[in-house]
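ok trying again, last paste got cut off:
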Amino acid sequence: MREEILALSVRPRMIAAYLGRLMLVTGLLMLAPALFALLAPGWSGVWQYGLTALMLIGLGHGLQRYVLLHKKDVLQANEAMVIVALIFILTPVIFAIPMSANGVGYLAAFFQVVSDITTTGMEVLPKGQLPISFWLTSAWLQWIGGLGITVLSLGLVSSQVLNIRRLSGVLDGDSQQQQVQLTDYVRNVLIVYLILTVLTFFALLIAGQSAVQSAIFAMAAVATGWCAPARIGINDYSGAVQLIIALASMSGAVTIGSYLLLSRNRWRDFLRDVELRLLLLFIFIGTLVLGVSLYFSGIPIGNAFFKAFLLATSAQTTAGFSPLDLNMVSGFALVILIVLMFIGGSVGSTAGGIKLVRAWLSLKIVAYLIRSTRMSVHVVNPLRMEGRTVPASVLLNTLAIVMLTLMVMTLSWLAFLVSGYPALPGLFNVVSAMSTAGLSVGVLNVSTPVALKLVLCADMLFGRLEFVALLVLLAPRTWFGRRLR
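nice, full thing came through this time. structure:
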């Protein structure tokens, strides 16, 4: 009873006001696709994209103007999560309308936008029939989706991210000081994100790609997504281009905020980051194992290990590009890729998965439980990581995310099994969607049933928002109950 008295439901005016701010910003960002459409024959789609962007701007401006906030209003944690979930749901619902103007149908366009905004990069559309402006828009959506999850997580749902990052020493000081510094931190994160994209763009230009192609690859790669117009895979491009895309994806899978350490000449702190070392370790192990597997499948040893490096990087960073046809690789290799995608990249990065620090913490929890059986009941034995005591809230968050991920993956996999799809390919695609990786094998194509595509859309949203935000949005007590005035 006391918990119910202290519990607070969301306030609609707070949701409306902050959602209005995000809609206004999203609308301004969506003006870019209208400019991209100028590259299409006959400027096809300009007015559809333009009107959609103006509608978002108008709605956002109206909410900003007529829903007034007081200086004493403080955003609650459940309100922040509802706002984040709503913007990631409303954007595909609204923006699928102009995307469908290319003759792909609303449901196909909706799947594409969900895939893009979650930085998954899964595609079910015929590439040859779509203009270059469509793929520019797709890459742009991936870029702002990757940017959005970083900024929204840090700016609105910041406490969990800051608690986890404190374990790796990226942020120093107490939580109150960190909250005060959060605005500057988010602004610097945006600058780093832009710098990584620009560097990738110019590297691709030097490697011989056109400006448009370089822009598409740079936006998608740094967002740990994949977008390639009119071609099937990354293998159709030169080795230099493939390497640049792989390195750009790795840069996006590192905690964006940790690059701020480099600007302060704290190279050692940057290199000591536990998630960076785990990222490189898993890519190395994945490259080694996949390289041996590809070599024994008949690929020359040099080419086998280069493709293995690209594939391991794609899976670990959840970028989703594939240097070969995954339908031709062994079941053992698919299992390795499933493990890499499931783990994913760093907290606070654009990559998906359960995140490296959570995977590492899960192993440490198991070791802690075994070790605690040897300890006297009088011994104070806290779980420590990198020399720091792990807060109970971080442990609960870690266990909850891992458990929810496994539960939803199992239910989604059952949907594919009931529909008659093979077990391993079905599991591979479910893990890929929930990890926002985008790699696909033997399941996803134009003829895939609509119900299964919607299952994958839900998986992509759950994976991108890490479950809690969507569950808070759907919980009845989030909306009905006592509210602050």
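cool. The two ends are 21 Å apart (CA to CA). The CA atoms of residues 300 and 337 lie 21 Å apart.
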